[in-house]
Amino acid sequence: MPDASPTKWHRAHTTWFFAEFVLGADGTTERVWDRPEYRFLYNSYYDAVGARHPRPERGLVTRPSLAAVAEYREHVDKATEQLLAGDSDLDPSIASTVVLGTHHEEQHQELLLMDIKHVFSLNPAVGPAYSDVVVEPAADPGPIGWAEFAGGMVDVGRRCDDSEPGGFAFDNEGPCHEVRLYDYAVADRLVTAGEWLAFIDDGGYERPQLWKSDGWHRAQTERWEAPLYWRRNPDEPDRWWIHTLTGLRALDPHEPVAHVSYYEADAFATWADARLPTEFEWEHAAVGRDVTGRFLDEQDPGFSFHPGSAGPSTGALRQLYGDCWEWTSSAYQPYPGFHPAAGAIGEYNGKFMSGQQVLRGGGVLTPPGHVRPTYRNFFHPHTRWHGAGVRLATDRVR
Hints:
Elements: H1 7-23, H2 37-41, H3 66-86, H4 92-121, E1 146-149, E2 152-156, E3 177-181, E4 184-187, H5 193-201, H6 213-221, E5 230-232, E6 240-244, E7 247-250, H7 262-271, H8 279-286, E8 293-294, E9 321-322, E10 325-331, E11 357-360, E12 377-379, E13 388-389, E14 393-395
Parallel strand pairs: 8-9, 10-13
Antiparallel strand pairs: 1-4, 2-3, 4-14, 5-6, 6-7, 10-11, 11-12
């Protein structure tokens, strides 16, 4: 699959980031490593650095070996540690790049698991699994409730007051600016697999009037009939299995639906007589709430690497963070006053501000502590392998 990369490549690329932008910031990359082909193989999309290997062909590169990549990583780690320990007056731009590099690596921790899951899903044998955890049935979350919000002018983006002092934010999270919102409501939890089954049973994938034109064309071309990783049970065609990182199992109707495209999410919202929230509505609803949820936790022996039930309603928003990234109706565009950083590092986010949709909230494979109310993830609207789910919105319920 063109969007997926091998585990070895993720390890090498996150190492290359420090070699290129931290150790090589003074132009002396030869002191980092004497293999110039690494700059070609493990550059992801930084055209200002130089030529790079095509993304769809990463899985075809068998050399350097895994052992060579591990040696490369060890070398760069040591050199970076020496740089940080040996200079008490480290250039602020280098220091900020080190911080950016750690957050970049967290992004690739999530991508690595997404890509492993996709590769396992293509194995014709039944049973490839990353974890052998036995997943217990999810609790019934009950019917969807609605949280209402009054309209008005609100601050959006990295806070421009002192409510969030310090900390890290990507450049695409700012500048802070005002946005006008109108009265709206958002669902208090994510859409479940059971609710998605009702959409399927009602012809959701067969009714073009529910779909955006581009989405309908994509769904027909790729023969979508259900979310990615859903499989029909060969013995009971009306029942579904689902491929997860713990293997293939029966679909649980109470868990959130995941691995749907923006087009599918939008079609479901239309079918449900609702819509998707804008990214500004989502952020306004999230500001001031604790960033807690089901995030990546490999230290927990019972962690399932899969979204779980919202649990019973408490009258508050549920699953706002973790479980599934949430599609918004907002195109990924620069905020007013946004300017990419100078040089190749400026390609980090700015160059992708075209043809993509914003997602919010983080997912079950996101490292804990990595997201915040202003975090803007983005993917092309047809993509499905990254674990996105659906939260509905509507004009304010009266």
